[in-house]
Design a protein that fits this description.
single chain, mainly alpha, about 80% helix, about 0% strand, elongated
């Protein structure tokens, strides 16, 4: 088998993952796109390792060993990433990246500052209890 086939497939997978990272708004879909990009890199590593092992006399299979480390790191990344996304979804009620960015900057969805709205509601609560 030629090296071009897995290289083209890897490039297509990587471009699909990059498109998903740049376009998607849901944090879980962004994490899935990152995983797709990592799998494209793994495919490239294994394909080039097989190609280089045919040309070299020594077969160290360093590309396949690096692929195993990449898979382990990807598994840890997806576990921590999903835990963070679930915690944010429980606290804020959304996994939309644009809405999370707006609330992190202190601006509400209607363009008002959350700090002034929060102090206004706190003052109203204080008056209501008094």
């Amino acid at each position: 088998m030629h090296l071009a086939y897995p290289a083209v497939l890897s490039a297509l997978l990587f471009c699909t993952g990059l498109y998903g990272v740049l376009v998607r708004r849901n944090a879980i879909l962004v994490l899935m796109s990152v995983e797709l990009m990592l799998n494209a890199v793994n495919l490239n590593l294994v394909a080039f390792d097989v190609w280089l092992s045919r040309a070299a006399e020594e077969t160290l299979h360093s590309g396949q060993a690096l692929t195993l480390f990449t898979i382990a790191i990807a598994a840890a990344e997806i576990g921590i990433g999903l835990a963070i996304v679930l915690a944010v979804h429980r606290n804020r009620g959304t996994a939309d990246i644009d809405r999370l960015r707006d609330t992190a900057e202190g601006h509400g969805p209607d363009g008002t500052d959350n700090d002034t709205a929060a102090t206004g509601t706190a003052a109203e609560k204080a008056e209501a209890t008094a």
